[in-house]
Amino acid sequence: MRLLTGLLLALCATLCQAATLTVDTGHGTRTFTTEQLLARPDARDIAVPDDVSYHRSMTYRAVPMKALLDGVAAAAHLQFTALDGFTAEIPASLILDAHGAEAWLAVEPTGKPWPALGDGKPSAGPFYLVWLHPEAGHVGTEQWPYQVAAVRMLADPASRFPAMRPAPGLAANDPVMRGFAVFQRNCITCHTLNGQGDAKLGPDLNIPHSPTEYLRDDMLRTLVRNPQDLRHWPQAKMPGFDRRTLSDADLDDLVAYLKHMATRKAKP
Ligand code: HEC
User: Which of 165, 259, 249, 247 is nearest to 212 (CA)?
Assistant: First the structure.
């Protein structure tokens, strides 16, 4: 019996290719198959002029991401998990706000795969979050998760990771608070701070030392704009942030936040 089930599963994996997306909005988990998503009345053909993963213009069959997020509050964060376990975190407000950038979940049709992302690599499917008018929402290149398998609602980082919080009592429009938001939008997927966060790729940005303690201001800014302009090596992984994704004012705020956090180090 075990063997038979195993055989059937293996057969189905090759023949059915039924990819499923799991969405956990905090009020229960729903799963959607490729076919269910493609059959939705709100599915559309969309053209993405500057696709971040394919570096060219692409067209997809896609559903509006917010339509799958019933009941998610704008203050929440969404964690997109890829087939290989890589996660990307996106503030729900960015997806739910209909006035700026539009988030679409591109669905790879069964039997008609998208191109490979590179030599010997799989495609961006089965599910891929793409954006129309990303500049309107300052959507970063890290906010285009591909090979998505699951979406999960998280409480916002400020409550999950208290050691990342600036000192209490700062006004919401204080540069440090604005910089904290910039950090969450652009850096938190790859960097922990004060040892907190889910990231595993880049170094911690406060302990043992904040980059604001060992890099001159202008060098730190150069690094964020294009890391390779500061130090250059073939396998560097950090992407640059151009002015479309991160304005000069955002960068000022980010540096203010990092300097502020250098005075609030977590004790080991
Ligand atoms: C896609 C992942 C990723 C993102 C997003 C990212 N970084 Fe990085 N960062 C890295 C990695 C990995 C390194 C280590 C060097 C390398 O491999 O490029 C690094 C290195 C750094 C360093 C140098 C640390 C040192 O002393 O060598 C600083 C400073 C830094 N990042 C700041 C930032 C800031 C600020 C942001 C947000 C604007 C950010 N990073 C966004 C991955 C990332």
Answer: 259
CA 127 – CA 108 distance, rounded (Å):
6
Q: How confident is the model over 141-196, as pLDDT tens digits?
A: 889 999 999 999 988 788 889 999 999 999 999 999 999 999 988 898 889 999 99
The single residue listed with the structure tokens 């005075």 is 263
* Segment among 4-18, 110-124, 158-172, 246-260 with least mean pLDDT: 4-18
- Cα torsion through 94, 98, 102, 105, rounded to 10: 80
Using alpha carbons, select from 191, 210, 209, 208 the residue that is nearest to residue 200.
191
Of 250, 247, 252, 241, the C-alpha closest to 140 is: 241
Residues with C-beta less than 6 Å from any ligand 1 atom = 142, 186-187, 189-191, 201-203, 205, 211, 223-224, 227, 236-239, 241, 254
Q: What does the radius of gyration of the chain's CA atoms come to, in whole angstroms?
A: 20
* Distances from the Cα of 167 to the Cα of 45, 150, 208, 260, angstroms: 47, 34, 19, 8
C-beta separation of 104 from 131 below 8 A:
yes
Determine how many CB atoms are found less than 10 A away from the CB of residue 97: 16
CA of 235: how far to CAs of 13, 55, 227, 251, in Å?
A: 34, 19, 12, 25
CA pair distance 119, 222, nearest whole angstrom = 31
Nearest CA, atom 41, ligand 1: 187
